[in-house]
Amino acid sequence: MTALQIKNTKNFMNMLLVNGEFDDFEVEEATVTTFNAFHIDGRIVRDFFSEDEIRELEEKGELAEFSKWRDIRPVCFQLIKGKKTPVSFHVVLRAKRALIEKLAESEECEVQANLIRSFALNIRYDNARVSCVTGSAFSTFIMDKSAERVWDSYVRRLFTDMGLDFEE
Q1: How confident is the model at residue 115, as a pLDDT?
Q2: In sequence order, what are the residues at sequence separation of 6 or more whose Cβ sits closer than 8 angstroms to the Cβ of residue 25?
Q3: Which of 36, 87, 88, 95 has minimal Cβ neighbours within 10 Å of its Cβ?
Q4: Where are the alpha helices (DSSP H) in the chain?
């Protein structure tokens, strides 16, 4: 687990809410607090879709347990945009299964991909500041911290590649 403080809030929020830099991540949950608190559970409700739509989404590989950020982002942006900044904003993004498997294959990771339940990125906006905290969950207790280190390193590299300034 690593905590990163974002130095340029406006730049980060543009990447998150406007530019789509995080669109491939899945959304576990999001909470936007403005004049009300709006909570979004990122789990896909399969009953919403017809059987044909489910089959079509499955064929495209687009039906997972959680919605993609690209689908939730416009809703969050709509809640946030305006003359006033939100009181707070919190979103929990998850790495796609394919990314987890790719990271587990790296030399530095000694944990099998099937034992990694999720890699998460907790993004919190509060008091005009953005902080990001990495996290991981496993299907069983694991003493080995190599998978967590690989995820932390990936997020640092991702932010650096995006041109984001941060401090630990």
Answers
A1: 95
A2: 68, 69, 93, 94, 95, 96, 121
A3: 36
A4: 9-14, 51-60, 69-80, 97-104, 146-161
